[in-house]
Structures are given as C-alpha cells and as structure tokens.
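Repro:
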Amino acid sequence: MVLSISITVILLSLLLLYNNFSKNKNSLYICGSLICMSIIAILHHFSVIEPNVFWIAIFSGHSLPFGFLIGPFLYFYTRNALAGKIIHRPTDGLHYISFLIVLISIFPYYFTPFDYKLKLAQMLVADANNMITKINFSWLYPSYWNILLRPVFLLTYTVFSIYLIFHKLKQKKIPFSFKTSESSLKWLVIINSIFLLISLLYSLLTANFFLRFVQNREEINSSPFSYLVYVLMCSLPILMLVFPEILYDVKKNKKPSKPEPVVEADNHEEFVKTTHLILDFLKKEENLANPKLGVTSICSALGLSKEDVDYCFTVVLKTKIAAIKKQLRVELAKEELKKGMLLDHSMEGIWMKAGFTSKTSFFVAFKEVTGLTPLEYVKLVVEETKPE
C-alpha cells in the first residue's frame, strides 16, 4: 500500500509541476516536498514492510539527503503561499545546509561498486536491528544519525510553518474556520498538519526502534504509529484531488452567479440630462487630447460626484468610460485623416492629438472600431473621393 501510494503521489506531483509551474513557480516547492517524502516512504517500504535486497541497494544511502529537503521545501511553499508571491531572501540558502552536509557525507558512497551495495543490503535484511548502527554509508559521521535526525528536522519545520500560518491570521485578525476560510488557507493548514503528524509519529517510531521498545520488522509494521503513518500517507493523493484549484490551478465548477438587476434611481431623468453633459464634455477636442481623461476629470470639470458619474455610465449608457473614450478618439482621428492631415503631419501627430498614449494603442483601437488600420482607412477615403 505504501509503495503504490508513494508512486501515485510522485506521479501526481510531476503532473502538478508540469501543468502549473509556468503559472505558479511556488508549485516547485510543494512538489519537491511531496516527492522527497515519497522517496523516503519507498525506502521504508523496501527496508521494513517488504524487504528487498536489490531495491534497498538502490534507495538506501542514495536517498538519505532527500529527507532533509522535505522540511525546507514545505517552509518555502507555506511562506510564499501566505505572501502571495515568490520570496527570495539572502538567508534562504542556510536552510539547505543540512542537505549539503548529508550529501557531502554520503557522496563517496554513490561511486562504490553496486556489488558492495548489494552486500550491505543483504546484511541489513538479515539483521536490521544490529546492522543499522554498524553499517556506515557516510565518512563524516555515523549514517544512522540521519535516520534519527530526519523526522526531528521535519517536525521542526512543520511546527514553524504552522506558526507562520496562524501568525499571519493573527496579524490580519482573521479567525480560521474550515467552513468559511478560503480553499488556499484550508489547504495550507491541512497539508502542514499532515506533515506534522507524519513527522511526529515517525519520530516516535524511530525512537522506539533505537530504544529497543520494538525489536523487529514485524513489531514495527504492527505498531499503531505505523498504521497511522500509512493512513496519513494515503490521505496525500486524496487531498491532491480534493483541492484541484490549489494544485492544478483549476477552478471547481460553480454555477455562474446571476447579475444583479439594475435599479434605476428615482431621479433617473436628471441623470439622463447629466449624461448628455458628460458626453458633450468628452467630445471636446481639447479634453480628448488629455491622456489622463477619466472620471476624476469629469467630476472636477462638471462638479459631479464619482457615484453620479458611475451611474451615468453603468445605468444610462450601459458601458464603460474607456469604451466611450476609445470610440470618440477614433472618430477624432478619422476626421483628421479625412482632412488629409497625414500629408501635413506624421501619424504620431495624429494619434497624440487624439489622446492616445502610443502608436500601438492607437492602431489597436482604430482597428477594433473601424475594422481597418489607419493607412487602410486613408486609402479607402482617397478612393471614395476620386472623381469618377
């Protein structure tokens, strides 16, 4: 069960990374944490649940450094998710020191002959109780220290990650509730809680083994701590499917909300008159030439409130000010082109006079309104004005 669950988590994580990395770089951290966790779980499967000499030779030793990436990756993911952006700090590299120490310590082992690794694996399978403290993959310190420190290291990071979540909520004075909180916050609380429980249970299981409270693989497998760890591991792929909007940037299907009916004010006719004043103001050439023409300009010039202007556009005109400005500016540019102003002035002079901020915005708007580029429009005007 642990093996199939771990492989499933790895595959889902890779799928997540493939689909989501371009849109959300933070997915790299949660994927990395889940993959590293699954690699350690696979090692546990082949070492304890179903001992296999070949796969122990593959995973044992080689996978030791990855256990020290689970915590830092989870911390970086939580921190970035709470901030809503990718954060890079000069001190971030310090979180990888333990991984680097283990990697340097184990590095020569990567280049030892595979026959030697198989021999060590056979010794572990034959007598794990005694050989786990005698076989050493490391040259800096006894390699069994990694087994002792790995769950404690993860436990420390998960506690701090959960602290970050609730510290953030306390700062914003937002109470956490599984009923009302956002999905992203629920996901952070749940995934950190699962990692916390796994690390805590695995710490207890490891302590029991080294203190000889459990003597062999059978006792480890039948331990209630093991059963709870397996259940928590099973919950990981389920969670990855329950929270698709977090992991895969996919929104759950929701019924589209019905637009609220527009309610006309009692003095609607007065607003209709005001709307005509606004349109007259916008049509003035000197106003259209102002690139900053907007609601503020209208309010200041006509002595209106922002709410009044908004009502005129949303209720009376049923459009946005940007659409009106674009239409009027294109009409002004058309008039200039009809007059042959392109002969006396550059195209830049025309789009600046019409109030556009760039050549690109002018060409795009002109094409949207008329279906033609400015030059195509000039050619059309010339052909229409030719004497027959």
